[in-house]
Amino acid sequence: MSDLAVLTLLTKALASESGEPLYRRLEDAIKAAIGTAHIKRGAVIPSERALCAALDISRVTVRKAIDNLVSDGFLDRRQGAKTVVSSRLEKSLATMTSFSEDMRSRGLEPGCVWISRDISRPSPAEMMALGISGSEKVVRLKRLRTADNTPIAIEIATLPARFVPNPQAIQASLYEYLEANGALPVRALQRMQAKPASEEERHLLGTPEAASLLIMERRCFLADGQIVEFTQTKYRGDVYDFVIELMR
Question: What does the pLDDT read at residue 240?
Answer without folding.
Answer: 76
